[in-house]
Amino acid sequence: MKYKINLMIEKKESLLDQIIYFSLNYLRYIIVITQIVVIFVFYYKFKVDQEIIDLKEGVDQRKEIIQVSQPLLKEAEAVESKINQIKPILKEQNSLLSQFNYVLSIFPEPIFLIKLRLDKDNLFLDGYSEDASAIKQFYYQLKNDKKFKKASLNNIKRVGLKYEFNLVLSQYND
């Protein structure tokens, strides 16, 4: 058996001694850890500041792009408006061209055209022929094809050896 006898009395450390012991042994680790945390916080702050600056620059660039593109957008709107104004005119022009092409495609050879007038709804033909049956055949073909809602043959008169006529065609159907 062994006995351990300590003849020295343990000295009770005062509060000041405990604080000094703690500060010499552990406080340095706390300070180092605190400094590392502060360094990370500064790094994070600089990173966030840089992101904010980048975002502000991006917003400024987008504002400049918008300002530069405003005249282009206004010009595009003006062009679109003009196109919308042109569409009905082109439609009407195509309808008149279609009427004209149709009439000329079935126009008989013995008939001679003196005058042709086109307006929005009507096509006026003034002509003559030496053969009355050619005029009659042309008129019936226009009626039978039903490309025009109304076809009226007016003022057929004989002048010498030829027959003069006025033909009015209304409301073309495509």
Spell out the blueprint of helices and strands:
Elements: H1 15-25, H2 27-106, E1 111-118, E2 122-129, H3 132-145, E3 148-159, E4 162-172
Major sheet summary line:
4 strands, antiparallel
Shape: rod-shaped
List the total number of helices. Answer: 3
Strand numbers in spatial order across the main sheet: 1-2-4-3
Low-confidence stretches: none
Number of strands: 4
Residue fraction in strands: 15-25%
Assembly level: single chain
Structural class: alpha+beta
Question: Whole-Å distance between the termini?
Answer: 127 Å
User: Can you give the helix content as a percent range?
Assistant: 55-70%
Mean pLDDT: 88
Structural domains: how many:
2
- What is the chain-wise order of helices and strands? HHEEHEE
Rounded to the nearest angstrom, the radius of gyration is 51 Å
Description:
With 174 residues, this protein is α+β, with helices and mostly antiparallel strands. The chain folds into 2 domains: 93 residues; 66 residues, General secretion pathway protein M, EpsM (Gyrase A, domain 2, 2-Layer Sandwich), CATH 3.30.1360. It is 60% helix and 22% strand. It contains 3 helices and 4 strands; from the N terminus they run ααββαββ. It has a 4-stranded antiparallel sheet with strand order 1-2-4-3. A hairpin with a 2-residue loop joins strand 3 and strand 4. The protein starts with 14 loop residues before the first helix and ends with a strand. This is Fimbrial assembly protein. InterPro entries: PilN. Keywords: Membrane, Transmembrane, Transmembrane helix. It holds the Pfam family PilN.
